[in-house]
Amino acid sequence: MTRPVLEAVDIVKVLGKGAGQVQALKGVSLSLASGQLTL
Amino acid sequence: MGPSGSGKTTLLSVLGCVLTPTQGTISVLGHSTAGAGSGDLAKLRRDHLGFVFQSYHLFPTLTAMDNVRLALDVRGERPKRAIARAQEVLCTVGLSHKMNAFPRELSGGEQQRVAIARAIVGDASVILADEPTGALDSKSGHDIMTILARIAKDSARGVLVVTHDPRALPFADRIIDMEDGCILGEKPGIENNGRVIQFGAEAEATGKRPSAERPVLASTRQ
Question: Is the ipTM value over 0.85, yes or no?
Answer without folding.
Answer: yes
